[in-house]
Amino acid sequence: MNRVVPLASRPARLVLLVLLLAGCAASVPTPGETVVRAMPEPIAGYDRTYSVFLPSGYTPGRAWPVVIAIHGAFSDAAYHEERTGFSRVAEQEGFVVLYPNGIGLFGFLQHWNAGHCCARALDEGLDDIGFIFAALEDV
């Protein structure tokens, strides 16, 4: 069951997350680089991954704008990052980019449950929106 978190409590949750991650430096993305991360637990039976880019000026403890860059069908986060240039723009303009990955077959042909398509994601009724929210929380 998903629950909506009031906007007022999100900064406090971000501070808590930063403090928790301070003891796990290896799990904190390095500012100025794109890091591929796996969700800590499977979501609906799938090991889900995403990439995140933090601009080099990133400092924890303050709110940062986030752009969620969703790749097209049969693509992936790395290719989408390369083709869109969002990370270069994020570096210049000062925002975080989250590149979630859809599900696929053996890491290929990644796709989303778009409601009217696509293959296994639609057939299994995957909650991709829930995954994206969980990835935001994981960052």
Describe what you observe in this structure.
It is a single chain. The chain has 5 helices and 6 strands. By secondary structure, it is α+β, with helices and mostly antiparallel strands. The strands form 2 sheets. It has a 4-stranded mixed β-sheet, sandwiched between helices. The chain has a two-stranded antiparallel ribbon with strand order 5-6. The longest helix is centred in the first third of the chain and has 13 residues.
Number of helices: 5
Summarize the amount of helix as a percent range: 25-40%
| Poorly predicted residue ranges | 1-26
Order of helices and strands, N to C?
HEEEHHEEEHH
| Mean pLDDT metric | 78
Structure characteristics:
single chain; 139 residues; alpha+beta; 4-stranded mixed β-sheet; two-stranded antiparallel ribbon; 5 helices; globular; disordered N terminus
Quick summary of this structure?
The protein is α+β, with helices and mostly antiparallel strands. Helix content is about 30%, strand content about 20%.
Topology overview:
Layout: H1 10-22, E1 34-38, E2 49-53, E3 66-68, H2 77-84, H3 86-93, E4 96-100, E5 103-105, E6 108-111, H4 119-123, H5 128-138
Parallel strand pairs: 3-4
Antiparallel strand pairs: 1-2, 2-4, 5-6
